[in-house]
Amino acid sequence: MKMAALSATTGIPVATIKYYLREDLLPAGERVGPTQASYDDSHVRRLRLIKSLVDVGGLSIASTRRVLESIDADITIGETLEVAQSTVSENLDPATIDEASLQLVDEAISGWNVHPMNPGRLAAARVLMTFAAVGQADTRGWVDRYTAAALKAAEADLDEIETRPDRAARAETVVIGTVLGDALFAALRRAAQEHLTCERYGLPPG
Amino acid sequence: MKMAALSATTGIPVATIKYYLREDLLPAGERVGPTQASYDDSHVRRLRLIKSLVDVGGLSIASTRRVLESIDADITIGETLEVAQSTVSENLDPATIDEASLQLVDEAISGWNVHPMNPGRLAAARVLMTFAAVGQADTRGWVDRYTAAALKAAEADLDEIETRPDRAARAETVVIGTVLGDALFAALRRAAQEHLTCERYGLPPG
User: How far apart are CA B4 and CA A199, in angstroms?
Assistant: First the structure.
């Protein structure tokens, strides 16, 4: 299909598609004339993926390029996961996180095979550091219960990834699951909080 | 204590504290002279809370003011939760979300007492809309398993809130839990993904 049809199919403006082409997010179409190129379903698919990473995932163009490269590269699922995780995670300096908070995380995930520089380990420790700094106590196993819930979600992620037919499809699901999974869980937790608040304390007035 | 001591105790620069005072995030100190005021532990506590909401929660000054007001106001925990949720959630227009995705969410949370305009319900539907748009299928109960995990986390949230001694302390935990809970879960899910990837596929090379 031509550029105009690609734009109509995906609902993405021609100017935006040209921008993605220039930024190397979208592979060039097949040259069919001096000023024309032809695009196929792989372009439609890739454009939708870019749009979801940018719009819903909130990724920058540079981050989007990085995770797309990890889908296209001949690397393992574990390596794709590493790229996806580091791209969507803040780059924390371990020196800014206190030992006590890191230890709390390590106790919670005790027995897990996790690299000390895993962005999740550091980010979790920073949350616990903040939690303590504002005088909050964990008296009902809050962290342990979040850890158990996170393990369940990660199992669902990996089970879903395993159903995909080939390496590229699995890598795509890794990237999408990493970016969208955070948003899905956060959203469902809000709904669950409202539900439980109603159950325990009754409906809000009005 | 004087402003200089407040700054030293919290590690927050005097200029930043003055900015928070001007923006009505921090209550004024007790006037003890024509140009001096005295601050107490409540100011230390509030400053740490502001810092965590802004730095770790990524809230704007306006959003921070809104959630602080909900802590100070004489409203129910359910109402505080509503303010905290709407402040940290994107304001989605239900008209932009397709019926099929809303229905998928409603099936997953079937039986829950959730208002149709709950920001979590709408945000979850938008994630599922995006998931479908990029050609991803949910073949292993991904959404249901996330829903179950989210309910467990919300139970942990509410159990923790219930241990707090009074309304203001409970409201503070609601706000902190809403803002930091997303970050904690996302972090622990990354660690869990790495752990399970190692378990299922072995350690990455090198």
Answer: 47
* Phi, psi dihedral angles at B30 (to 5 degrees): -80, 125
Chain A residues with CB inside 8 Å of B126's CB? 56
Q: How far is CA A112 from CA A88, B185, B191, in A?
A: 22, 16, 8
Judged by a CB distance cut-off of 8 A, whether residue A200 touches chain B is yes
* pLDDT per position as a tens digit, B24-42: 999 999 999 998 999 999 9
Sorted by where each begins, the domain ranges of chain B are 57-201
Encoded tokens for B159:
């159990």
**Phi/psi of residue A140, nearest 5 degrees:** -120, 30
Contacts of B201 in chain A (CB under 8 A): 76-78
Rounded CA separation A78/B16 (Å): 43
Whole-number pLDDT of residue A203: 66
Residue A84 has what DSSP assignment?
H
Which residues are paired to B31 by β-bridges? B37
CB proximity B106 to A under 8 Å:
no
Task: Decide if A76 touches B, using CB distance below 8 A.
Answer: yes
d(CA A56, CA A131): 28
- Phi-psi region at A202: left, alpha or beta (left = phi > 0; alpha = psi -120 to 50): left
The pLDDT confidence band at residue B137, using thresholds 50, 70 and 90, is: confident
Indicate the average pLDDT of chain A.
92
Q: What is the three-class DSSP state of B37?
A: strand
Condensed to tens digits (0 to 9), the pLDDT of residues A116-145 reads: 999 999 999 999 999 998 889 898 999 999
User: For residue A135, what pLDDT is reported?
Assistant: 87
Look up residue B86 and give its two tokens: 């709407």
* C-alpha span between A153 and A174 (Å, rounded): 13
Q: What is the ipTM of this complex?
A: 0.90
A117 in B contact zone (CB under 8 Å): no
